[in-house]
Design brief:
single chain, alpha/beta, 5-stranded mixed beta sheet, two-stranded antiparallel sheet, 7 strands
């Protein structure tokens, strides 16, 4: 199974996310496996969970030029520094409260405020 996921990663079908403090090697099990982009998700199933779609989208937009990993709190750590929690428009800071360099990526909002960034804005990075 590990070899299959490795091949799928090399073919840009899936993206493996390892723990922020675990490192990445062939012996380490990934914390999370996401599709490489949202189009692949919709090819395989007509119903995609909103949360999975959001996380996959943010990972696909940031993963091209940055190192992504799984934090203990939140959804993604970028380059070992910035923590992102991805959610809907009512997503609060409860899960990442008190963590430096942490941000909410929120679907369903047009304009960001403070440390809350609209999900659509990540499309400008690609």
């Amino acid at each position: 199974m590990r070899h299959l996921i490795d091949l799928m990663d090399k073919a840009a079908l899936v993206r493996r996310l390892y723990g922020a403090d675990s490192g990445m090697n062939m012996l380490t099990k990934p914390e999370k496996v996401l599709f490489y982009n949202t189009n692949l998700m919709y090819c395989l199933t007509p119903h995609v969970e909103d949360g999975t779609m959001r996380e996959t989208y943010v990972a696909s937009q940031l993963g091209g030029g940055h190192q992504l990993s799984m934090p203990n709190q939140g959804d993604l750590v970028v380059d070992g520094k910035w923590l992102f929690e991805v959610g809907g428009k009512n997503k609060g800071f409860k899960q990442i409260k008190g963590i430096e360099d942490s941000y909410i990526v929120s679907d369903g909002i047009d304009i960001g405020q403070g440390k809350k960034i609209p999900l659509w804005l990540f499309g400008m990075l690609y």
